[in-house]
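Section 3.1: Structural characterization of target chains.
Under the original work plan, the team committed to producing a structural model for every single-chain target entering the pipeline before any wet-lab resources were allocated. The record below documents one such target. The sequence was received from the expression subgroup and is listed exactly as submitted; it comprises 226 residues.
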Amino acid sequence: MPGTLSVGVLPTVATVLLPPVFAAFRQQWPAVSLLVSTDSNAQLLEKLKAGDVDLVVGPLSEPEAMHELSFEQIYREPLAVVVRREHPLTFETPLTLALLARFAIVVPPFGTLIRQSAESVLTAFGAHALTALVETLSVSLGRSLALRNDAVWFVPAGAVGHDIALGLLTALPMPFVGTAEPIGFMRRNDAARRPIEEILVDALAGSRPCTRREQMTEKGAQRVIC
């Protein structure tokens, strides 16, 4: 339908990135219906290849998953490990593995790129195996477990920035080197570009401060100054 645009978005990105983007989009296309799907990145890419969504917003995936797709980076998303304000761990210096293991750990599902980042942080911290894990991509569930159940939540920093600014959540000091993920939008190389899609793409490209835009395809990378 010409008045419909379908977008697939990673749940941990959706609540932060999309509200201001949609506000800009609807100023130019107020009558267009936006159909938003949230799922894991792998599932969203399958929907994109099948033509079930027009574009996907999420992290850059492995090369084999990006076959016949293009990726344009919007920003890089660091990982955060957060707990509620005045959580017992906020009073511990230094933070140790034994202390961390006393609490439930909330992480993204196994097989996701965010989970790989979480595992690299845990490994750097010395944790090779932890029990009482909760696996979820749901921001609302992770937030509730952190605020009400003393859970330690591994989550993209942008998804909890507002709660940290309000003092509801506190970031723990953890080894985060190399965990920032490139976040951008993905489209099929063979798909026709509709005007309503280009407006949303322009809003996405301008939604985060940057020094360059990177468009990556199977043929290489093209960099354009923002």
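Residues 4-76+181-224 form a domain with the D-Maltodextrin-Binding Protein; domain 2 fold (CATH 3.40.190.10).
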